[in-house]
Amino acid sequence: MLTEQPGLLFVAATLLPIASFAILLLWGAVRWGLRPYANDNPAARNVFEMLGGAVPGPGPAYVATAAIGLAFVCSLIGFCIFLGEVGTMHELEHELVHHQQAHPDKHDDKQGEKKDDDIDKLRGEFNQLKHHWEGSVDWARLYSSSQKDIDRGAILTVGFRIDMLSAVMFVMVTFVATLIHLFSIGYMSDELQKEVEDHEVHTAHGHYSRRGRFGRFFMFLSLFCFSMLNLILADNLFQIFVSWELVGICSFLLIGFYFERTSASNASNKAFITNRIGDAGFIIGLMIIWTFFGTFNFEEIFRRVRCPQVDAHGPITFKIGEDSAKHRIVRGNAEQKEGYPFFKANPEGSLALIFPRNEHLHGPQSEQKVYPEPGATQYTTIPYWLLVVAGLGIFLGCVGKSAQFPLQVWLPDAMEGPTPVSALIHAATMVAAGVYLVGRCYPFFTPEVLLTISYVGAITLFVAASIAVVMTDIKKVLAYSTVSQLGYMMLGLGVGGWTAGLLHLLTHAFFKALLFLGSGSVIYGCHHQQDMLKMGGLYPKMKITALTMLMGVLAIAGTPFFSGWYSKDEILVSAYGFVMANKQHFLLFLLPLVTAGITTFYMFRMWFMTFTGKPRDEYVHEHAHESPWQMTVPLILLAILSVGVAWGWPPHIPEHSWLGEQLHHYSQPESVKVDFAEADKAIAAHHGHEVVFFTATSVVGIGLVFALVLYFYGVLDPNDAKEQFPDVHRFLLNKWYFDELYSTLLIRPALVIAHWCRNFDSTVIDGFVNGLGKWSVLTSYWSGRFDSGIIDGFANLIADVSYAVGSWLRNVQTGYLRSYILFLALAAMAIWVLLYAWANAVIGGP
Amino acid sequence: MFELQPFMFWLIATLTGLCAIATVISQNIVRSATWLLFTLAGTSGIFFLLGADFVGAIQLLIYVGGTMVLVVFGVMLTAQGPFINMKTSGAEWAISIVAGILLFSVLCFGTWGHFSAPQATAMDDPKDSHQAATLAQAMTGAGYGPIYKPVQRERIHYLLPFEIVSVHLLVVLIGAAYLARAKRRKGAAT
Amino acid sequence: MNPVEQLNLYLALGALLFVCGVVCMATKRNAIGVLIGVELVLNGANINFVAFSRFHPNFQVEGMIFALFVIVMAAGEAAVALAIVLNFYNNHTTVDVDTAEELKG
Question: Does C86 sit within 8 Å of B180, measured CB to CB?
């Protein structure tokens, strides 16, 4: 099976963590269920002891680590096989396109049949190879009235599709996750105790103590890994959305792992709610896509939104102005002609063309019929603004997940989780998901959306870097550096550096995992002390940690020949090209350039403050120690990769980074070249590579010099600078007052409105209801009075009258026979008299 | 012209009416019963006068012979000292007499004033009496009519009512005997 | 004297007997006296029947037959009434109808 479809290796790699999650869940559930009976019931006690007993055992960690380790092995093997096949696949695809372009209409060609055979053979080989890396099963069949033309109906699928990007991501995620698992075994060993005392939670009886949660931690980690891998694996947006939400809930669970701490539970809430805002946008995007495209499959969406290069009848000759429309989003207007709406191409048009799902139809002419009924032709349209909104919506989801401006506020707070979780979130999984999705949906984004992405990235990277400068908590510094680096990635993607942005995602994953695990090692060695103001001079105590972290610092700073340099340099080059082509967007180059220096400064500041100089806190310094091997081995491995993961030959040219080339050749969407053709030209025209190399390196150098001067040699006192610019310092220390801004703009108004609503509720609604109640009581009272007075009185009156008449009439019933006879006689007489009178009056006599 | 018929009528009617009034106004029950006897006899005389010999005879037989004996028998059974003369108050008397006079005048008004049958005529010679044979024919269903006239078979006959009355009489006599039977009641025993 | 006037005279005699019977029933406290009144009323009615049988062509026989029936009825009625009176006397040791007032309203 694996030889037929090696892509299943990746599926296996995805399913291993969920299997581990299921095992751990069952394990924990059984233990939880047996715990109350363990004391009394011997059988229950035996099983309970077998599952680890009252003290949490290290078993779950081994299960989870083995699962993710196996997943890494699977993905590595799969990656190797993929590398072997991807070249052939790519060539075959090119040849196919070439053939079809060269022989536009097979029926006109006398040698057509022979060519047909060639094409069919090529297509067969190509499809076979493609089948190795693709597969999907129908999950749910839905029906949508607007999708009559789709023979398959509207179907939600579960599937996988491996290309270079996802294969590389797979290896990166599983590798980093494996190391983080390994690291966690050491770092979370506190949780192995029967009673864990949480020093940060104070109760009336001193510190709060609880049972150890070792197994639970690894269970969550497994679920987290599964979600992320499934997200990378998916071949459709819906599957991604499901994984997306799973990632969200896992981050919620892990950030709030110490949920007894108020700060931790608040942070997890904040992360979750902030992500919800982004996900709302994501859902809007999904709905628009579903409505107009009827599918969530990436390939189909891209094929329908971008003009194809060929169809069965040859190359697409459709032009927009002078340029070929190939790989472009075709805009135009609908006009009436011959009773039908016609589509007239126009770069400013309000509609965008949706291309046919299948390639066996004629390519669009410059004036294409658009029938009102979608079933009549494969060509339909979507309002261009909706396309923009869908792109922005999806990007909003990425903004939330990747902590971009303005939703960046949750990520620094997420440091409340255990440090391995921070590493996992920041390096490999959650924040990577946003960037990955932007890269994945790239062909779907219109230029407006891409520009938005660029600006969001630029603002984010600068804001976050500026805040990182003043942070003293070692994890907060890293958190803001993560936000800043994510901004770089977004910027890179937005300005056309697709490869650059995603390469930065990969390199960043390694060095940021390294830095976080290093900081975790420091925190562990310093007995959970995170404040850099209490560290200093730790280098002799923990050399491995210090040296590996130095590698990470150099990489993130963009020191030449370290992995970060390759990706960051490429991002800057792309930005330079974009700015040269569109001068009005000069900030898109200026901000990342300046921030590169700031990054160097604050990263070295962190390293110097932690490892060099005089110890600031004797207690911390004396008790500091190097971490055990489970923690240092991952550090060393990550350090090696942080240095060399992006290398290529020759090493001094960033474009020749091997990893970058792989992505560039095999995974970069064709639309990138088309959309950013001008920027590419501008890079060549203005010597982009050289300019960027020198400016960036000198800026990095300046940053390093500042850091050395301030924090290593101590020539200048940083406190002087602080006192010199107190306002700036306070502004940065308060994170640009974003939290306060949101509090003022959103939370407090919401509270005020909620308060109003409550008041409205309690006064108007309740008042109305109470009024109704009172009113009915009042009416009931009067109704009762009316009832008992008038109705009853009337009834009683009748009864009384009857009674009176009756009791008067009973006098007539004397019981004396003789009086009855008398009455009888009188009555007969009266009847006679009346009869006479009546006869006289009516008949006029008898 | 002297006619025997009206003379006899006036004679017998006056006697009968006076006897009836005497029956009413006599305080002693025994006398009252005696006056009733005369009244009944006078009535039978009226029947004879009207040519209904058979009815008159039956009147004498059953009323004067049977019923009066029965009444007198009852009077004798109950006529112990205090019950002979049970006085009725004067006011009651006055009311009753006034009511009686009013009723009588209304009846007379009806008789003469308005409701006398205009077609009533003396059908036959008053000397022709309706003989028992005619009645017997009607009673047994053989038809009836004057002997010298053809029998009108289609007319009503009274066999069934006659039988019913006979059975009724029998039942009444048995019932009366049952009612009058002396019962030993608790109250009476003590 | 035409037959109608003759008839009217007979009817007047019947009415007199009838009224006498009614007054007798209304004034006699003795139960036997009441019975006597009933006999008077029945006789008045009988005179009417027989008079109509004499003067009305449609009642030639019927009048007399009804008179016969009434006589028989009267005999039966007298027997029952006497029985009642005797029973009443047995129960109340009196024949005063005014004491029979248990059914008064």
Answer: yes
Q: Which of B32, B74, B120 sits opposite C4 (nearest CB)?
A: B120
Enumerate the residues of chain C whose CB falls inside 8 A of the CB of residue A820: none
What subunits touch chain A, counting only 3 or more CB pairs under 8 A? Answer: B, C
C84 occurs within a structural domain:
yes
Chain B: give the shortest CA distance to residue A823, in Å. Answer: 9
Residues B68 and B137 in one domain: no
In a domain, residue B103? The reply is no
Helix B29-49 vs helix B68-78: crossing angle, to nearest 10 = 180
Q: What is the mean pLDDT of residues A43-53?
A: 79
Q: Structure tokens of B12? A: 């017998």
Each residue's pLDDT tens digit, A57-76: 788 888 899 999 999 999 99
Partners of B112 on chain A (C-beta within 8 Å) are: none
Domain that holds residue C57: 3-93
pTM: 0.67
Distance from CA of A812 to the nearest CA of C (A): 8
pLDDT at C16: 93
CA gap A81, C48 in Å, rounded? 141
- Chain B segment 82-101 residues within 8 A of C by beta carbon are 83, 86-88, 92-93, 96-97, 99-101
Using CB atoms within 10 A of its CB, is residue A472 exposed (0-12), middle (13-18) or buried (19+)? middle
B79 and B135 share a domain? Answer: no
A361: left (phi over 0), alpha (psi -120 to 50) or beta: beta
Would C71 be classed as within a structural domain?
Answer: yes
- For residue A825, the chain C residues in CB contact (below 8 A) are 22, 26
A452: alpha, beta or left, given left = phi > 0 and alpha = psi -120 to 50? Answer: alpha
For chain B, say whether A372 makes contact (Cβ under 8 Å).
no
The CATH number linked to B45 is 1.20.120.1200
Which helix (H) or strand (E) covers residue A804, if one does? helix A792-809
CA A312 to CA A378: how far, in whole Å?
Answer: 14
Task: Please give the full DSSP string across A605-663, using - where no structure is assigned.
Answer: HHHHHHHSS--S-HHHHHH--PPPHHHHHHHHHHHHHHHHTT-BSSTT-GGGBHHHHHH
- Indicate yes or no: CB of B24 within 8 angstroms of CB of C24: yes
State the total domains in chain B. 2
Say how far apart CA A325 and CA A303 lie, in whole Å.
13
In a domain, C100, yes or no: no
Measured in angstroms, the CA of B151 and the nearest CA of chain C are apart by 13
The CA distances from residue A299 to A204, A306, A393, C26, in Å, are: 60, 11, 19, 123
CB contact under 8 A, B130 and C18: no
Count of the separate structural domains present in chain C: 1
Q: And the tokens for A653?
A: 């040219």
Q: Do A833 and B110 touch (CB under 8 A)?
A: no
When pLDDT is cut at 50, 70 and 90, the band that residue C1 belongs to is low
In a domain, B170, yes or no: yes
Reported ipTM: 0.89
Residues B9 and B76 reside in one and the same domain: yes
Inter-chain CB proximity A818 and C27 less than 8 Å: yes
Question: Cα(first)–Cα(last) distance of chain C, in Å?
Answer: 53
* DSSP bridge partners of A387: none
Asked whether residue B176 is assigned to any structural domain, the reply reads yes
Whole-angstrom Cα Rg for chain C: 17
Burial A401-418 (b: 16+ CB within 10 A, else e): bbbbbebbbbbbbbbbbb
Alpha-carbon span A809 to A437, nearest angstrom: 103
Kindly report the CATH number assigned to the domain that includes residue C13: 1.10.287.3510
Q: Is residue B101 in a domain?
A: no
Cα(C47)–Cα(C64) distance, integer angstroms: 10
> In the predicted model, what is the mean pLDDT of residues B41-46?
91
Domain that holds residue B144: 130-182
d(CA A846, nearest CA chain B) in Å? 6
Q: With respect to residue C98, please indicate whether it lies within any of the assigned structural domains.
A: no
